[in-house]
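Action item from last meeting closed. Structure (526 res):
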């Protein structure tokens, strides 16, 4: 009997892109799979999608496929990810935008050709969302490899920085990042000199943020790449598209004006200061939200990140919109076999706060053991959900209800209200688009919600909605047999036992008709 309500979403990468690995991850309970050009090469996406669809068939379980757009963040890394750069306090690191300019051991390569034009002396660069701090010393010109002097030095000395050949911290895979554009010529290209503020290691390409500048403005984003990805999304039958780095209402409107495949859901990424400022409007215009805690913490300050995380989750819960949380969830499991105590506490708080889905990033994209990370996350979620006081949460929701309610809303509200008084073990709902199931789980019932639909797209989307167990049922049924079939499905999937009471929510037509939710019945499993 599946009892886990909070959904698990993974990021696909070289460590998890094979068909065999995807099959085992889906069997282990992965509900959604995120595709990002940050972790795969564009030319590999068709092969990966084929592996994913074949893995679904072999695992006999469909998942929600999520595509992230605007992955135009600035990243730096060593020329060879297998040979990391080890830096000490006071070392000077050179950053170039073309690997051919790497004329010594202490050079990092940036994925954005405009990077030297975006920085100024005195700027603070925050790597890995603040784990590593660099101060920009100067922006110079790299004449050529033969003419360029050796500028890799420790400040105030002639001692070069240490470069390690011990191999990467993560042996599983190197990090693939699509090079959006390259300079036409390396001649006279610029190089950025930075002072290292804390001991660190740079290997796979890691994210860079400025402490005092918005470096991810839409004009820097290569929108043509995203448009091509949207065209591909239709061919690949993507279920959810996440728009990241949204800088304002006008920016969101321009994104929304781009056509997307039919029935594909739009999620807005909440990570910039502007997305927090326009939070209500952004959520209202979207089908859901994805919180990127890394950039959010950099842009708003670490002291505000926890408070904002909780308030964003609550706002989405109140509006009945699914919300996904990501970034450094089980970060230690990228290279280790167990999560840290603080990570376990972090996940527990996510579950208590009401997040719909928890997104693993590096843990599954390039970590040593993606399957172990998924199993660990599921274990923490199940333990946490066993300590939720649903009736207390429901009372807080019921207290703030806005009246009058629509008929459909009233039916869903009454269904949840009736669970405790009837000792119902399950709520069954018939849903064409998934909206009825979303309305029900908004009130946080103590039991699971069996969402029966005749639309595969709806089933996949409901995979990432908290508390919903979606099942696909053909619409080619004899009239009047939908309730009977629903009860059989509940028993077949071990969601309810013979003789138990279940609550049925459907329409007056006893069929899959959008907007017909008006019926509430109490049934006994035969």
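Sequence:
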């Amino acid at each position: 009997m599946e009892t886990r309500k909070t959904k698990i979403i993974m990021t696909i990468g070289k460590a998890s892109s094979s068909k065999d690995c995807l099959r085992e991850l889906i069997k282990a309970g992965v509900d959604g799979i995120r595709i990002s050009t940050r972790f795969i090469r564009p030319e590999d996406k068709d092969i990966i999608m084929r592996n994913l669809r074949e893995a679904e068939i072999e695992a006999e379980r469909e998942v929600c496929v999520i595509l992230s757009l605007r992955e135009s963040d600035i990243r730096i890394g060593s020329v060879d990810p297998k040979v990391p750069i080890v830096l000490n306090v006071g070392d000077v690191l050179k950053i170039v935008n073309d690997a051919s300019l790497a004329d010594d051991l202490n050079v990092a390569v940036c994925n954005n050709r405009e990077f030297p034009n975006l920085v100024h002396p005195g700027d603070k660069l925050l790597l890995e969302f603040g784990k590593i701090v660099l101060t920009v010393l100067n922006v110079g010109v790299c004449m050529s490899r033969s003419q360029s002097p050796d500028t890799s030095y420790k400040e105030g000395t002639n001692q070069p920085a240490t470069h390690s050949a011990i191999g990467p911290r993560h042996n599983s895979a190197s990090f693939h990042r699509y090079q959006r554009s390259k300079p036409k010529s390396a001649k006279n290209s610029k190089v950025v000199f930075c002072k290292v503020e804390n001991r660190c290691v740079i290997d796979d390409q890691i994210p860079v943020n400025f402490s005092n500048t918005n470096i991810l403005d839409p004009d820097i984003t290569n929108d043509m790449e995203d448009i091509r990805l949207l065209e591909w999304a239709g061919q690949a039958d993507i279920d959810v598209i996440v728009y990241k780095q949204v800088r304002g209402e006008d920016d969101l409107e321009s994104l929304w004006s781009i056509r997307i495949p039919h029935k594909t859901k739009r999620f807005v990424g909440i990570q910039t200061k502007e997305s927090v400022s326009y939070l209500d409007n952004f959520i209202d215009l979207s089908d859901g939200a994805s919180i990127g805690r890394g950039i959010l913490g950099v842009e708003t300050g670490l002291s505000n990140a926890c408070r904002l995380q909780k308030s964003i989750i609550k706002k989405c819960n109140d509006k009945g919109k699914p919300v996904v949380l990501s970034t450094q969830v089980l970060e230690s499991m990228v290279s280790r076999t167990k999560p840290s105590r603080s990570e376990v506490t972090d996940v527990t708080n996510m579950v208590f706060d009401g997040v719909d889905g928890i997104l693993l990033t590096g843990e599954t994209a390039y970590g040593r053991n993606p399957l172990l990370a998924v199993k660990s996350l599921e274990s923490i979620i199940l333990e946490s959900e066993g300590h939720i006081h649903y009736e207390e949460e429901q009372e807080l929701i019921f207290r703030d209800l806005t009246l009058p309610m629509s008929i459909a809303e009233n039916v869903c509200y009454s269904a949840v209200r009736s669970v405790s008084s009837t000792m119902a073990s399950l709520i069954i709902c018939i849903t064409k688009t998934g909206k009825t199931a979303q309305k029900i789980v908004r009130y946080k019932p103590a039991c699971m919600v069996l969402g029966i639909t005749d639309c595969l797209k709806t089933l996949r989307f409901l995979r990432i909605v908290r508390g919903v167990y979606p099942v696909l049922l053909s619409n080619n049924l004899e009239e009047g047999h939908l309730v009977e079939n629903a009860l059989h499905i509940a028993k077949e999937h071990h969601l309810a036992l013979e003789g138990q009471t279940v609550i049925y929510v459907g329409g007056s037509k006893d069929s899959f008709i959008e907007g017909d939710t008006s019926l509430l019945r109490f049934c006994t499993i035969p």
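Note appended to the action item: DSSP finds 17 helices and 22 strands in the chain.
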